[in-house]
Amino acid sequence: MKVYRSKSSRQKIHSTYDRLLASWGVETEPLDLPTRYGTTHVHVFGNPEAQPVVLFHGVGDDSALMWIYNAAALAAHFRLYAVDTLGGPGKSVPDSGYNGHFEQAVWIDEVLDGLGLDRVYAAGVSNGAYLVQHYMVARPERVIRAVAMASSVPAGAQANPMSAMLKIFLPEALIPTKRNIRKLLLKLSGDNSAAFTGNPLIVEHYTHLLRGFNTMAMRYHKVTGFTDAEIDGLRDKVLYLTGEADPFAKMGGLAALEKYRMKLRRFPGVGHGINHELPQEINAAITEFFQE
User: Fold this and answer.
1) What CATH code is carried by the domain that includes residue 155?
2) Which of 142, 75, 115, 11 is nearest to 287 (CA)?
3) pLDDT tens-digit map of 107-120
4) SS3 content of the chain, % helix, strand, coil (to 5)
5) Which residues in the chain belong to E strands, given as ranges?
6) Is 115 helix (H, G, I), strand (E, B) or coil?
7) 2 part of a folded domain
8) What domain range is 265 assigned to?
9) Dihedral sign of CA atoms 110, 111, 117, 121 in order
């Protein structure tokens, strides 16, 4: 599976990835775990005596970018495992087993087994939040509690985000000039867009991602809707953190959370990059929910 459009693209993305990781302000241990679908790259950090929390990033980004404003604060309270999604533009490497038979729950099973973790807490952003919910439905005994950020409960026809993604990311993502990249970041963000646009390293990395990541490498990650009974099983175990300025929330995501009476915290003026735009509040919300 070709994750990057060229060797040069891979080098540029990994270069800024390493610089973002170095800016976390916390020491991490990189692990490469073999699975039937390829090698999964995981960053381990935080208090080794604390509760285990597994972190999943969104589509088209990676752990180094996703947790830049959260890693140090969360490390004081938890033992954390930041996973680079297989098929994403991080440092996980799919092999021939990563194909149309890819099963997300089986992949996460093997990641947790490789880490020696039986039961965990989990948190994810955007598609990472879907992965967390999907795994909780498939393996309810392995996830104690979860936080889903910039996401919704995938119910019925609302489970397929493709039409929403096309409306939001196009046309800027097709022509990733500096002007269009800034425009896209502003479109995705809320009042604190400077969390992205004001950080030159994030802008540089995001530019390399848009220009060099082969988005088709994620095509084996399927989004499926949950039944009402499955949604009922998530209600008391998942906290949803949603920005009211998030374009995905405004296109039905927030309404679905309210319809199904999920455990929800709304943040006015906050966009899709909720944990970047409002890191102190989000770090506090995650810590409080997992330590209740």
Assistant:
1) 3.40.50.1820
2) 75
3) 999 999 999 999 99
4) 45, 20, 35
5) 29-35, 38-46, 51-56, 78-83, 93-94, 120-125, 143-149, 238-243, 263-267
6) helix
7) no
8) 7-291
9) negative
